[in-house]
Amino acid sequence: MQNRRIVIGVAVLTGALALAACGSDKKDSKSDTPATSADNKPVASSVSWPAPADASAQTKAAGLPMLGAEGQVLHIHSHLDVFVDGKAVTVPAEIGIDLNRQQISPLHTHDTSGVVHIESPVKADFTLGQFMTEWNVPISKDALGPLKTGGGKELHLFVNGKEVSGDPAAIKLGAHEEIAVVYGSPANKVTVPASYNWPQGL
Structure pTM? Predict the structure, then answer.
């Protein structure tokens, strides 16, 4: 009976951090929803990049701290879409969340909706490059994780539907911005979203 109480206690504690703050434990949870293209049609991608097993190590690699609770001084959200060869790649839940250590990064995801939570105890600029490093899918002008440009493959970045140039890792994550990462051949047509339908409260 005592062992059972311990198991139940760990389960409750584990769930508490993942669903804490934002007042959004249900408002933006879409973990059972498949990745969709801009026209809301589910698409299957052969590319799958899960959340890293060691969130703390990846957060450190991104140059960010791990916190005991979500910060409240800066509290905004961006949305990220990733397309590879014309198909959407799921942005996994719990990027930047270390359930074992009960710690959380200022940049994190709670579910697979693509919503990036930016919740910091200090005002600062946070970038796409930091988040992608936390995901262990680093981004640069000529690479998206293990995928390289060249040989007919291109990498394009869009913010609110408009293509941007320069270093994609330097793109700042702003409030309610829609960021789209598109990798593949120009023949792989993608309808780039210009906005995201934000749930109430985010």
Answer: 0.81
> For residue 22, what pLDDT band results from cuts at 50, 70 and 90?
low
41: domain range?
2-184
Based on its alpha-carbon atoms, the radius of gyration of the chain, rounded to whole angstroms, reads 17
Strand runs (DSSP E) across 109-166, as ranges? 115-120, 139-140, 143-144, 147-148, 154-159, 162-164
Whether 34 maps to a domain, the answer reads yes
- Alpha carbon separation from 52 to 28, 57, 95, 98, 133 (Å, rounded): 22, 9, 7, 10, 10
Mapped onto helix, strand or coil, the DSSP state of residue 67 is: strand
Cα–Cα distance for residue pair 88/106, rounded to 1 Å: 25
Q: What angle (nearest 5°) sits at the alpha carbon of residue 36, between those of residues 152 and 61?
A: 70
Mean pLDDT over the full length of the chain: 84
pLDDT (tens digit, 9 = 90+) per residue, 139-164?
999 999 999 999 999 999 999 999 99
Residue 164 inside a domain? The answer is: yes
Q: For residue 13, give the CATH number of its domain.
A: 2.170.130.30
Structural domain includes residue 189: no
Domain count, the chain: 1
pLDDT at residue 84 is higher than 70: yes
Q: Which amino acid is at 55?
A: A
